[in-house]
Amino acid sequence: MKLSIMLLLIFMLSSEVLSLMCQKCIPSGITPCTRTQITCPDKCLSATVSVSSSGTDMNVNLQTCGTSSLCVNESMNVGIMNIATNVQCCITDLCNNRTPAAPAQQFPNGKSCFTCVANRCSGTVNCVGNQDFCISASVQQGNNALYMKGCATKSACDASAGVSSQQGVAPVNVQCCAGNLCNSAEIFTLSFFLMIVPLICSILFH
Fold it and tell me: Is the pTM of this model over 0.90?
């Protein structure tokens, strides 16, 4: 009898965990998202993604399911664009209905990595905060190829190992290294600037 009660309690607790309700609101491009409710197996996630490019700053807010690998703050600096996240996760129903503050300002940490300017990847960029790794990534979108280099946090590099094709963006190679200027100065043919955004987002929120 005791064993049956124990199994019943485990089943009830497992069912409760599997029925965690979360808010979902993921913008698509410049189109505002429509907030809905979804069932999540682990955690609820709410994040603010800050993107800085050519003197223009933009914050993007999103809510969705969270996992241990997603519930970490990440950042990358690829020269023409710097992106950082402030991620908050929680484990009660609809708890991700608040918007996190924008990520705090980060300062140079003394490390540098190669980055791409026009069609050459021989430029350098100063890493900030805990961007302790250099990243090199390539992506194929239709007939266009894009190559990206810059600085990244360890969490962004760890996440990139599991990047898969999504929303028409198919990363084909992502590599990180820990040495200063270790991501080599190669020459590539770059595609359109806007392709960088889905590539970075696919790495940060794969």
Answer: no
